[in-house]
Amino acid sequence: MANLFEDSTGLTPSVAIKFLIDDQESYNLFAMEGFMPTESWNFLDAQLTNRLKPFDTSTEAGYIMDQTFRKKITEASMRPFGVAISHIGQMRNDGSTLDNADVKVPYQLYFRAPEEFRGELTDEQKFDADGNQIHWVDHVKDTLTEGDVIYEVYAQYEPFFPGTEDDELVLDDKLVMIAEIKLQTDLVTSEWADEKLFFQHKQIAKDRKFWPRSWRRLNEDPRFDKRDPDNVFGNETPAWPQDTEEAKELFADQMETWGCPFEWLMPEGWKMPE
Fold first, then answer.
1. What is the domain partition of the chain in residue ranges?
2. What is the DSSP letter of 29?
3. Which pTM value belongs to this model?
4. Distance (Å, rounded) from C-alpha 175 to C-alpha 6?
5. Distances (CA, A) of 260 to 101, 140, 252
């Protein structure tokens, strides 16, 4: 979904953060703004989080994504719009773990770049002197240097409970900054990391055992029972072009026509629900 083509409207920012632990496998955190492309070319402009909103099935793009992508990831996680964060709070750097009763985990995490790195890019940042568009990676690498804080990490310490609407609370009222992500070197790109580095997701259901009952009762993470055939996609798919140029052309056509790349996976003659 994050593939770029000539008529792309913007990026689909996401981050994966790896925590190294003595004598065992690493743990990981993930965050993104959403599964759909934004309208910004500034990677640092988006607020990223470990919990996303479900697709808007009243739109064609949202309905297609729900019937294809959501059904497929439901096969791996029945709460497909979030990933866990509690495993980080349970583990010490030396590989020892806290007792469950001692684990303190926020409801949700948010990652925000400092204000000076956010905002719409200028033409000078988008295009070089010859009018060629500057690659978004080059913009990020040119913007950030060793010692910069690239993200401030905020913990949402509790959800919004029913009956508090009159309190006029906003998200920032429930956020506490708990960390900064700072570069120890200049940014580098790595073909090896792109191809070989693995980040394992953990299901958000694992967080629930550390939550108070009042949080669990809200059930804000939509759950789809994968034992129900209507909730999963299965393994039958139409043929996708093997020729690179044909595949690029079909991808671009899907994005331009439907606003997402997966309409080709929909049943023939499908219609939006009334």
1. 14-237
2. E
3. 0.93
4. 38
5. 43, 26, 9
